[in-house]
Amino acid sequence: MFAPLKRGRLDYIVQKATELGASYIQPVQTRYTNSSKIKADRLQANIVEAAEQCGVLSVPELGNIEKISSLLDTWDPARRIIFCDENATISNPILALSNIAPGPLALLIGPEGGFADEERDRLMKLGFVTAISLGPRILRADTAGVAAMSLVQAVCGDWTTD
Prior knowledge:
This protein is an alpha/beta fold. The chain has one domain (7-155): SPOUT methyltransferase, trefoil knot domain (Alpha/beta knot, 3-Layer(aba) Sandwich), CATH 3.40.1280. It is 40% helix and 13% strand. The protein is built from six helices and seven strands; from the N terminus they run αββαββαβαβαβα. It has helices spanning 7-19, 40-54, 68-73, 93-98, 117-125, 141-155, and strands spanning 24-25, 28-29, 61-62, 66-67, 80-84, 105-108, 129-132. A three-stranded parallel sheet has the order 6-5-7, with helices on both faces. Strands 1-3 form a two-stranded parallel sheet. α1 runs parallel beside α2 (40-54) and α1 (7-19) runs parallel beside α6. The longest helix is centred in the N-terminal third of the chain and has 15 residues, at 40-54. The two termini are 27 Å apart. 31% of the residues are buried.
């Protein structure tokens, strides 16, 4: 899940999410989202192209943009949300991810301006949300997406060797 970005960055994030194993790509509108409109046809073409170039057999589905509040209202708590938050209390993302039980996961990347306090507060009150830090730097949203997906795949995903 990600807040839509400027065009080139938006294309990049869906391409990399596809390459890194996302099965569903969900744009979300937050208080500080730069753009509430996306060109689904262009994004779908980017997803298909990335899948073809990388030999991905299962092309991720692209959801319609949805407000974060509406998405959380209907969220299945059996699917844990990994929330990328520069204010996460555990500074070591590997440690935070290591404590997550196996099961379905979703990753939430914020907009360029970060999350509003009320969005962060709501997320942190939900029992199925785990906040992770992406280190001491503030990353661009598209870079944060790649870093976070790589961490999740390495610790909880299909990069594990057990």
